[in-house]
Amino acid sequence: MISATRIIRRNALNGGEIVDRIVLDHGDRHRRRMAMQGVGGLAFLLDLAEPTVLDDGDALMLEDGRLIWVEAAPEMLLEIRAGSDHALKRLIWHIGNRHIPAEITADAVYIANDHVLADMVRGLGGSAEPVQRPFRPEGGAYAGGHGHNAGHSHGHAHGHGHHDHSHD
């Protein structure tokens, strides 16, 4: 089976023969080694040096130089909004205390669909509506990946020391 051993980030992609594409959710875009099959049927082994987050629009380079396009699959998420910029910042602070992956846009925050967090957001005066869209969470200051959107969902690489907020 042919292997994909390199990632070409979308901002560095300039040409190359794209022969297939893979559509992966957020969890499946954080991998090191995994057998994969493209939408067009091309089977290959993802074989990277270390676990890495594949971003929407990246490409995987096969051993023979051909490319596999990476697409973020639509997922069920919560779209969180607030009545003002300040109110949205306050909600972001509360969500951040939960240490969960979050995608922050200019006027909304997206997190995995979770009824407990939806109730918390509504209790704080925000809106939390289920939506289906690709999930592109922030990388986080401690995620590694050389500053590139490396996911924070697979544990913490930093110590918290003592803190007294609840994670329930």
From TrEMBL:
Coiled-coil ranges per the record? none
Residue ranges for the region (Disordered) are 128-168
Q: Which UniProt keywords apply?
A: Chaperone, Cytoplasm, Nickel
Basic residues bias spans: 149-168
Looking up SMART domains in the UniProt record yields: UreE_N
Boundaries of every UreE urease accessory N-terminal domain copy: 1-68
Q: Which Pfam families match?
A: UreE_C (PF05194), UreE_N (PF02814)
What are the subcellular locations of this protein?
Answer: Cytoplasm
Q: What does the function comment of this entry state?
A: Involved in urease metallocenter assembly. Binds nickel. Probably functions as a nickel donor during metallocenter assembly.
Question: According to its UniProt record, which protein family does this protein belong to?
Answer: Belongs to the UreE family.
Name of the protein in question: Urease accessory protein UreE
Q: Which organism is it from?
A: Methylobacterium thuringiense
The taxonomy runs: Bacteria, Pseudomonadati, Pseudomonadota, Alphaproteobacteria, Hyphomicrobiales
